[in-house]
Request: fold
Amino acid sequence: QVQLVESGGGFVQPGGSLRLSCVASGSIFSIVAMSWYRQTPGKERELVATVASGGDTVYLDSVKGRFTISRDAAKNTVSLQMNSLKPEDTAAYYCYGDLLVRTNYGGSRKAFWGQGTQVTVSS
Reply:
């Protein structure tokens, strides 16, 4: 099936920047939307940003103006540029793909999660 591979997490001081990337591979017919979620221990996983196939984007209020989601449809990739990072941004970040997977009849809509990449913001 489809595999989402994430990279770019790490350690950074407050005010620093990181860029996360996610590459989707497999029997993909088309992409409906791709997103980034994050989760910390004891909290529910929350949507950070989404980019739809038409280019529309949605951001969590607390990251607006600091994070930017972008896509390269030809390469089935999505990135999250994170600037002005704060300690409260510390979390495991997950790539999420809302995809149409190829079938004998065209496509079947399915969702896939990446394995997660840790972002730690601390002085």
Q: What stands out?
A: The first strand starts at residue 3 and ends at 7. The radius of gyration is 15 Å.
